[in-house]
Amino acid sequence: MKAFLIDVEAQKVVEIQLNTWKDIAPTIGNDCTIFTTPVTFDNNDTLYSDDEGLLKEFYGGIMMEDWAYPIVGNCILQGTDEDGDPTDPIMTKEELEAMIIWMTKDECMEYHGEQYF
Question: In terms of Cα–Cα distance, which of 84, 61, 63 is closest to 74?
Answer without folding.
Answer: 61
